[in-house]
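Dear colleague,

Thank you for sharing your sequence with our group. We've completed the structure prediction you requested, and as agreed, I am returning the results in plain text so they can be pasted directly into your records. Please verify that the sequence below matches your submission; if there's any discrepancy, let me know and we will rerun it promptly.
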Amino acid sequence: QQQQQQPQKQQQEGKMDVVLDMETSDPDDFITLCFVADHPRLHLKAVTLTPGSRAQVGLVRAALQAMGHSNIAVGAGNLDYKNDCVSGWHKKVGLAWQPSDDAEEAWRVLVRECDSNTTLLTGGPLKNVGAAIRNSGERFTCGRWIAQGGFAGAGVVPEDVVWPGNLKRFRTEEVCPTYNFGGDIESAALALEHQGFGSIFMVSKNVCHRNVLASHHTAQLHSLLTQLLAKKSVQPEAAPTPAAAA
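Please find the predicted structure tokens below.
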């Protein structure tokens, strides 16, 4: 869905500026965090968490520090959320972490860090994005919004496309609810109507579900994080700069 022009300017030595809004009820957003944080062509400016429990903040802070990015701004939707919202999978990847309240309000981080040259990547319910729009209106702008959510079914996907076994039940469906947009329908509607995004792209449910996380992938991630932690213990990270300068 194109609304305005797509951002062309890239910041920080040709890198694309990215803000990640994520959740931790399953592995995919955490893997996305690792990918974005260390990708040579991306500059991760900030991470915001939904719902934003202290456990989530502690996990993400530990991951960022292991990758040498402890200066990146972290925002939480609700530090006092009743559940930790961290899956059992995250406890198997080799990170030692403790709950933390070292986070700003998520909507404030989004408003400050997003601009016309930034790509906002969302992987969960859009509570933080909705809060940013409600609190800042059209002052909340972002060059590109890429959302994991929505559904592309019959009438959109060509008939000759082969659907994986785990998705065949959706083959004839024209519409289908999805967690990321259905988790906060009002915020999703608000975001889709928001004029502050230069362009909007949605990665549909059936595209995401074509990818399968196997046990050997988890083992590889555990090995990589172990290597990062070992490297960090030999070469201590420099003192972090203020989060606002991330």
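Summary note from our side: Strands lie at 16-22, 42-49, 73-76, 104-105, 118-122, 144-148, 200-203.

Kind regards,
the structure core
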